[in-house]
Every structure is written in structure tokens, then in C-alpha cells.
Amino acid sequence: MANIKSAIKRNKQNEKKRIRNRVYRGTARTFVAKARTAINAKDAEAAKAATLEAISALDKAAQKGVIHKNNAARRKSRLMKELASLQ
Fold first, then answer.
1. What is the CATH number of domain 16-86?
2. Which of 2, 29, 45, 65 is the least crowded, having the fewest Cβ atoms under 10 Å away?
């Protein structure tokens, strides 16, 4: 446990940020998983809608700084590639 006042404050800030980041990261993971499930089910309409939701969630996570913008771009690219192979 930290004894120095600034270290105690930093720990509190880090914990708040960790919880806030988890929300965006978890949401993005959930939507990506739903999109992959829809793509694997070969349902073109549902897959397209789920993929667009996943892309939105990834963009939001990147915008908030939870994941790196290139990480979001790579994951979006892979999702779109899978979606295109379906059609």
C-alpha cells in the first residue's frame, strides 16, 4: 500500500480509469463476438448489422483511448473481410 499522498491519489485515479476503460473494452468485445457469430451463421443481413455495431463500438473505444486506433482499424478490417467473404 502506498504511503505517499500523491501515490495514494494516483492509485485512486488509476482505479477509476480502469473501471471506465473496462466498459468500452468489454462492449467492443461483445459486439465483435456477436458479429462473428452472425457471420458464422451465414445470415447476411444480421451479420451486416452486427458488424456495423461492432465497428461503432471499436471506433468509440479508440476515440476514448481505451485501445489504439491502429488496433481498432485492424480489427475492423478483419471483420469487414469476413463479412465480404460471406457475400
1. 1.20.58.110
2. 45
